[in-house]
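Hi there. Long-time user, first ticket. I'm pasting a complex I've been working with (about 333 residues overall). I'd like to know whether the download I got is complete or cut off, because the file seemed smaller than I expected. Thanks.
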Amino acid sequence: MDAAGSEAALLARVAGGDASAFATLAESHGARVLALARRMLRNEADAQDISQEVFIRLWQQAGGWESRGARLSTWLHRVTTNLCLNHIERVQKRSVPMNDAATEIQDPAPPVDEHLSASQRESALHRAIEALPTRQRAAMALFYSAGASTAETAQAIGLSIKATESLLVRARKTLRRQLATLEEVRT
Amino acid sequence: MKPETLERLLLRHGDDIERWPAWYRFAARRLLSQSTEARELLALARREDRQLRQAMSPQALPPELLQRLERIPAQFPRPATTPTAPSRGEQRSLLRLGTAWALACGLSGVLLGSSGWLSVGVDDNALAMLAFGSAGESDISLEDLP
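Hi, the file is complete. Here it is re-exported in full:
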């Protein structure tokens, strides 16, 4: 049985109330769901809560699952993205209004004369990723962390493929610029 | 295809040419076989994308979250399933029962009404007050409604 077939079989068992099949799915998809939530929310506790919510929905809605050619991971990523965006909106309404530009790190690049260790370069890159606007972060996490195609990324974010490509281009430009700066510092 | 186009496509689709749309893939392969500049651009994009993948690679699930996920089936029961439509025989029985119940209620109402037991002493003024209310005394405004 191929991967899609075995996943469909697992889902059918979950729909029938099989808790061990559910645990298998949670284990195989949980890390990617959490990685996406972490990237979008930048808060570990919130990311874990959202991940749990995603799997509660999977458990409660497995009976109505109809693949129609879609992969379970695409559905999981879409639910994760929507829950994260709703969460961000709620938090922003509660607190002082802030936009992504306001949270952007002023200059994630270190001073040029400073010699950087590998871990410093890594954390500079992480800071640059976290400084991206929410949807760009989501698109990058789906593409690079979840291994989604551009079409799957678009489906998960709820945008057209063109709009998603545009998000990815802007994010890559920013991060490649950052990587080039870090590379210059190293040499 | 020119190297500048390849550079734009690397930004749009990433470094994995195998995942590109077929036409671009074909043109890019041809350019790469002919141009050193194109090969350098691809090498640079691969190096950068590898770093991005590393930075964003998912980490293992924390054990406490895995336990939370495994407890979901026990902690979050599924909502009741949607009731299925009654069969024709069931529909006929329900119709007979409903008709009998409606007749019984109607008859009881007529009997109680004619005996005068249902009078509660509400006069027309009190009914008018209830119908129009008093704006100044109302505790609930339209804004309070969900």
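A couple of notes from our side: Chain A touches chain B at residues 17, 19, 22-23, 26-27, 30-32, 34-35, 39, 48, 51-52, 55-56, 59-60, 63, 122, 125-126, 129, 140-141, 143-146, 149-150, 165, 168-169, 172-173, 175-176, 179 (CB under 8 Å). Residues 101-113 of chain A have pLDDT under 50 and may be disordered.
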